[in-house]
Specification:
66 residues, mainly alpha
Length: 66
């Protein structure tokens, strides 16, 4: 009986270590996701600022030979 309890304690210790490792990994991934989302928002703002206010349609463009 004592061997079974010891085996369960060892398995529990490994499970707790694995859970802590997974929690750390998920936390770091979420930080990275948040950082990437901020960068995407900043890039979107830069793109929107770079687009001229008066957008021209390709239909408005007349080829030179007409």
């Amino acid at each position: 009986m004592e061997d079974r309890i010891t085996e369960l304690e060892v398995k529990l210790a490994f499970a707790e270590d694995l859970l802590e490792t997974l929690n750390t990994t998920v936390f770091r991934q979420q930080e990275r996701i948040d950082q990437l989302e901020r960068q995407v928002r900043e890039l979107r703002q830069l793109v929107l600022q770079a687009i001229p206010v008066e957008q021209r349609s390709l239909r408005d463009e007349i080829p030179p030979h007409y």
